[in-house]
Amino acid sequence: MAIRTIVKHPDPILREKAKPVTKFTPNLHKLLDDMAETMYDADGVGLAAPQVSILKRVIVMDCGEGLIEMVNPEIIASEGEQFDYPEGCLSIPGLRGDVRRYQWVKLRAQDRHGQPFEMEAEELLARCAQHEIDHLDGILFLDRAERVYPISKDEEGE
User: Fold this and answer.
1) Rounded to an integer, what distance in angstroms lies between the CA atom of residue 32 and that of residue 111?
2) CA 91 to CA 39: how far, in whole Å?
3) What pTM did the predictor assign?
């Protein structure tokens, strides 16, 4: 495994649409392993492949209940609204935003071996999944935020 460089805004790759994964090879497994290591090293809860300069539809997330890997993820159902958690991004350091997201989502994806699966997510995990899937479509939280503000000195130390 290796820690990869996280691309920072305004790098144009963050605005490109990622392509579906069609080959489930050892290279994909290495990408997933590297992305997880990179996310943990950066103290993040999610990371999308475009954030490490790879235009593939791949995300990793860990909101405290263990690593989730998703290849070709899509939201197939959603409900409710949440607006009570400030959103940040490893590619946009120093800023947070108030973003309206669905409270609950049902996701369809494939695992690292190409096996399809579905899962439900709510609250922070739902927010994270929506944020990372946005990255796959070249959308940043800045595009959806109703308000963007700098991280306070107190938050930087957390």
Assistant:
1) 10
2) 11
3) 0.95
Domain for residue 139, yes or no? yes
Cite the active site residues.
132
**Is 67 a member of any domain?**
yes
Distance CA 52, CA 50 (A): 5
- The number of folded domains in the chain is 1
Strand (E) positions, the chain?
46-48, 58-61, 68-79, 95-98, 104-110, 116-122, 147-150
Dist. CA 120–CA 104, nearest whole Å = 7
Question: Which residue range(s) make up the domain with 70?
Answer: 12-156
- What is d(CA 121, CA 106) in angstroms, rounded to the nearest whole number? 6
Question: 109-142 pLDDT, tens per residue?
Answer: 999 999 999 999 999 999 999 999 999 999 999 9
Measured CA to CA, the distance from residue 43 to residue 64 in angstroms comes to 11
The CATH number assigned to the domain holding 150 equals: 3.90.45.10
